[in-house]
Amino acid sequence: MSDDSFIREVDEELRSDRMKSIWKRYGKVIIAVAVLIVAGVAANGFYKYWSESRASRSGDAFLAALNLAREGQQEQALAALRELEQNGYGSYSVLARMRAATVLADAGNYQAAISDFSTIGNDGSVPAAIRDAARIRAGYLLVDHGSYEDVANQVESLSSPDNAMRHSAREALGLAAWKAGEASQANEWFSLIVGDNGVPASLMQRSQIMLDLIAASGTAARQS
C-alpha cells in the first residue's frame, strides 16, 4: 500500500468517525429540522392551492353576479354581491361593494348608491385608487341628485393638477355648477379641462361643447 492510499483511508475513517459523532449528538435535531422543512414546503403548497381555489371561487361568483345584473335580475345580483362583500377573497370583496352600488344606481335607488360609493370613498382599508373612483362615481350621481356643495364635498379634493382623477372631478364640478346656475364657475372648471394635457378625447369634446353652450347663453359674461 502506498503512502497516499494509506493517508486517504485514514482520512476517510476519521471523517466517518466524525459523522458518527455528529449524528449521535445532533441526529434528533437534524431529523426535526428536516421534518420542519418538508412540512413547510407542504404547507406552502397547500396555502398556494387554497388561495388560488378561493380566488377562483370568488372570481366565478363575481362573474355570475355580473351576469345576473346584465340579465336584469337586480335583486339576485345584489344578494350575490353582498355575499361577496362579506366572504369574497382578496380584492373581490371591494369590487363587489363597487358593483353593488352600481346595481343600486341602475335600479334607480340613487341615494343608496351615493351612500355606498361615499362609504367606500371614506374607507381607509380600501386601496386609494378605488376610493377615488368611488368618490367620482358618487360625484357624478350627485350632479343630478344633490347640490353643487354635495358634489364638491366628494370630488373637489381630486381636482388638483397632480391628481390622476382630476379630469373627471372637474367635469362633475362643472356640470354641478352649470345645473346650479353658476355659469361663471362652470366655465372655469371646463376651461381647466380644455387647457390641461392628456385629457381623453371624449371628455375634451364634451367640455368644449359645454364651453360653447355657456358662451352662447351669455350667462358667464353677465355673472362676471
Features:
single chain; 224 residues; mainly alpha; 10 helices; 82% helix; 0% strand
Helicity level: over 70%
Enumerate the spans where pLDDT stays under 50 for 5 or more consecutive residues: none
Gap from first CA to last CA: 113 Å
Mean pLDDT: 80
Total number of β-strand segments?
0
Rg from C-alpha positions?
Answer: 32 Å
Most strands sheet:
none
The outline comes out as elongated
Strand residues, percent: under 5%
Number of helices: 10
Q: Could you give the order of the helices and strands?
A: HHHHHHHHHH
Pairing-aware structural class of the strands and helices? mainly alpha
Verbal overview:
It is a single chain. By secondary structure, the protein is mainly alpha-helical. Helices cover 82% and strands 0% of the residues. The protein contains ten helices and no strands. The protein has helices at 3-70, 74-87, 92-106, 110-121, 128-145, 148-155, 166-179, 183-194, 201-217, 219-223. Helix 5 (128-145) runs parallel beside helix 7 (166-179). The radius of gyration is 32 Å and the shape is elongated. The mean pLDDT is 80.
